[in-house]
Design goal:
Blueprint: H1 4-12, E1 14-15, E2 20-21, H2 30-38, H3 42-52, H4 66-71, H5 76-85, H6 97-110, H7 115-124, H8 126-132, H9 139-148, H10 151-167, E3 177-187, H11 192-195, E4 202-211, E5 216-224, H12 229-234, E6 243-246
Parallel strand pairs: 3-6
Antiparallel strand pairs: 1-2, 3-4, 4-5
Helix pairs in contact: 1-2, 5-10, 6-7, 7-9
């Protein structure tokens, strides 16, 4: 490709003060000089440059990533309603709900274990976040959002997604057998104001109604670990004619 630079100079070279354009001093068009000196057809060369210089044409078209397709399943209208209902974006100085949710979903799908990992991973994909509606987030900003954003926004979104899954899998209600079970998770002392289990232990418990045939959860509520399963079950919505049973453990 070393011939391109002299070729361009021959094609575009012009001395207006003395001879005019190069090639015209000998009444020979510049394209013949290109052909004789470098073996180039300057007409074809100009056509190529015109094509590359055309405004509005992108050399590489934008392609959506897999994460973009996953986010399309989120009912953002529901998210907006929940944000307004719970005043989740009341402070304009703080992280908005949408990029917050995108960051946490990204962390879940990538199996990230800490706020620092989330921060680093988002920075490594900064160029793609704009098209998703997300942004890079520092770990301190993310910690503040996790602590102060109303949990009802995410709980409401989870319920909407569960209902969305069930819409594609409807069966006769008399054939439904649903499982009720719970699972516990140990927490650190920061959750002591609501999840104190004993003097030294804090924990949370997820109470779930599960459809084994559809292989999907139907309902979820999180309580402190010392809340009895029966207490949580009494607050669960009950579907008429459905059969509920306690989940069996191996």
């Amino acid at each position: 490709m070393a011939w391109l630079v002299p070729a361009i100079h021959v094609f575009l070279g012009c001395d207006k003060e003395r001879r005019g354009c190069l090639g015209q001093a000998h009444e020979r068009p510049a394209r013949f000089v290109l052909e004789e000196v470098h073996g180039i057809d300057s007409i074809q060369f100009q056509l190529v440059t015109n094509h590359l210089d055309t405004k509005g044409i992108k050399a590489v078209q934008h392609q959506n990533i897999v994460f973009h397709a996953l986010l399309k399943q989120i009912p953002w209208v529901v998210v907006d309603r929940l944000v307004e209902e719970h005043c989740a974006d009341g402070d304009p100085r703080r992280l908005k709900t949408k990029p917050h949710l995108i960051a946490m979903l990204h962390a879940q799908f990538c199996g990230l274990q800490s706020l620092r990992q989330i921060e680093t991973n988002l920075q490594s994909h900064a160029s793609k976040l704009y098209h998703l509606g997300g942004c890079t987030i520092s770990k301190s900003t993310l910690a503040t959002a996790n602590r102060e954003r109303p949990v009802e926004v995410f709980a409401g979104l989870l319920s909407a997604l569960m209902a969305q899954l069930q819409a594609g899998y409807r069966r006769k209600i008399g054939d439904c057998v649903w499982l009720i079970d719970s699972t516990s998770l140990r927490l650190n002392r920061l959750s002591g104001n609501w999840a104190q289990f004993s003097a030294d232990v804090c924990g949370a418990k997820a109470h779930i109604v599960y459809d084994p045939d559809a292989d999907q959860p139907l309902y979820l509520i999180v309580t402190a670990a010392n809340v009895n399963d029966i207490t949580a079950a009494k607050a669960m919505p009950i579907e008429a004619k459905a059969t509920y049973t306690n989940g069996l453990k191996d």
